[in-house]
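User: Could you check the structure of this?
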Amino acid sequence: MNVLATILPALDELPAFAPGDRVHVLNRAPIGHYRVPIYLRGHVGTVMKVIEPSMVDNEEEGYGRNAGGKRHYYRVALPLPKLWPKYEGEPSDELHVEIFETWLERA
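Assistant: Sure, the predicted structure tokens are below.
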């Protein structure tokens, strides 16, 4: 019997989003350590890829508050003309960036 095939992921270790999902980058301002640039907050993008494997929540880990729980990073495409209204490139140009699951919600 394959032991690895019987391992079940813990709560929140399955991806919350899938490629093609529209997501909203949360607009919050935590004190201290965070990893989402201010200019991305509040914008809507599309999940391009789920980054595997899931990872420890680096913001919680930085404060010693993580008991080993894991979540996913997602490669999210954000339209450049929405990020920078004076953008002069192609209307279809996108910024692709990896964002941790705790910073995303369904759009």
